[in-house]
Write a structure and sequence with these properties.
Elements lengths: L20 H12 L8 E3 L10 E2 H6 L1 H16 L9 H27 L11 E2 L9 E4 L1 H4 L7 H13 L2 H10 L5 H22 L4 H12 L8 E3 L4 E3 L33
Helix pairs in contact: 3-4, 4-6, 4-7, 4-8, 6-9, 7-8, 8-9
Length: 271
Amino acid sequence: MTHRSSLPALRTAPRGVPGGIDLAARYAAELAQLGPYFAVSIHPPGQPLPASWRPLSTLLDSPDDLQQRIAEVRAALAADRPPDAVEFRVAASVTHLGVAARLISPVLGTAILLGRVPRTDPAEVHWQSVLGGPLPLSLPAPALTGYGGQPGAGQLASELRQSLLNGPVRTLTRVTAAMSVSPMVLQGNIASAVYAAASMIATARPGLATRAATIRNALLNAPELAGTWTSTPAGFRRRSCCLIYRAAPAAPSAVCGDCILSPASPPRPPG
């Protein structure tokens, strides 16, 4: 079990600092050290952002915005081919996986690194429509500063399940599934994103590996994700495919390491 002493003592936002910007920025810098999918920008709550930043609610609540994002990803996957060379469902699944990973990673990282689950109201979290690399996200400062206290891994997992898996990730999945994308594929994307994020945390911060594994396993075994993956002697393996290999049908080996179609062995077993 990871001792509480391995976690930083949480501090509340300093008095007189609007939204605790300085403290939130320090926490954001710690998250960024876990990897690019954990990196977030910070903005003062209630203040307008440049026009290039859009509320996350526009991506989750508007099929038009999500379809536009999928179209951009589809064109990028097609490369020098016409966009329709890539099936819509392939681009939709890849888009879903990318957005889900961006929603999951910083929230899971905050829970494991700082011992609290940040509030991610889609009306207050902002994103930028940029291709190439992780989707840019900006959180309001209070999402990272919050309150003191050191809840246990079980409580953190429960909060993550309610506020994340049954929050914006569920909304994203529902909207994407309505575009004729298999729910099994989408749930597999979520399981893959949870496993990958926890693995990156364990690699970057070995002292938090046990805590990361405990929370990861609690999420993967929750009703929302149970049955979407399996534990083989080699390690974690999802029971579906994100379909990205179909973007390059001439390269059948272009599958992810945790894919059900992959002959390669995943790096580590869950547990």
